Amino acid sequence: MGHWLARNIVEPGKLPLLLALGAFVLTFLVTRVITRLIRAGRGPFRNIRPGGLHVHHVVPGVVLMVVGGFAAVAEGRHGFGAAVAAVLFGMGAGLVLDEFALILHLDDVYWTEQGRKSVEIVVLTAALVALVLAGFSPFGVNELTPDELQNRTIVVTNTLVNFLLALVSLAKGKPRLALIGAVVPLVAIVGAVRLARPGSPWARRFYRRRPRARRRARVRAYRHDARWAAVRIRIHDLLAGAPDR
User: Fold this and answer.
1) Least packed by Cβ within 10 Å: which of 33, 50, 115, 195?
2) Residue 58 in contact with residue 31, Cβ under 8 Å?
3) How far apart are the C-alpha atoms of 187 and 185, rounded to whole Å?
4) pTM, full prediction
């Protein structure tokens, strides 16, 4: 483990990225626990309301991202300062993306159905950063053998293809399959090859003159939602908390 860490993380200068990812995930989890305790009226935590104004945690998140970002630019990728900057940036990103839905809708939708987008964005962000940290990049590591370079290139190519399939799945109106498929190989191909959901960018572009495809897409979407809606709601409630009804 130590050899892998030194060769794939420290040597290419990715240690700050690892620290930022750890701070990002930990901050998101701690924030979700605290907000759920505040919502339930338990524990010592309360909303911050100076002068009656509710200060959302996206505000300190932006401050931490700005400070950490500029400090990282000034320090580079090595040294104690770079590590501190990475942690500050990761903490800020965790606070900001936890309220991504608020920024998107310009409204306090944290405990609503729209607020679930924040959790999906956090999971996708953490997964993509973890892929960069996996050590599969053929660049930045010295003294690679031809076999190591070939293996890394193959993995990078497969990752790019998988990511393109995830984009197609997203265009077909299947964000959850795209989210999982960006991390787990071959999952995105299911969303990429099947019919697009009605109203998705893909359906609007390619099904305009195909009434049979539009009809099949509506029927398939209805059956899929009827089968999996309850399971999806339970998983979302577990991760993000049940929305206000």
Assistant:
1) 50
2) no
3) 6
4) 0.72
What HEC string does 28-80 produce?
Answer: HHHHHHHHHHHHHCCCCCCCCCHHHCCCCCHHHHHHHHHHHHHHHHHHCCCCH
* Residues constituting the chain: 245
- Of the pLDDT bands very low, low, confident and very high (cuts 50, 70, 90), residue 8 is low
Distance CA 143, CA 149 (A): 10
152-162: per-residue pLDDT in tens?
677 677 778 88
Count CB neighbours of 154 within 10 A.
12
Burial of 223 (0-12, 13-18, 19+ CB in 10 A): exposed
Which tens digit of pLDDT belongs to each residue from 34-76? 999 988 888 888 888 887 788 899 999 999 999 999 998 888 7
Residue 217 above 80 pLDDT? yes
Q: Give the residue among 37, 36, 100 at the shortest CA–CA distance from 242.
A: 36
The sign of the CA dihedral 37, 34, 25, 119 is positive
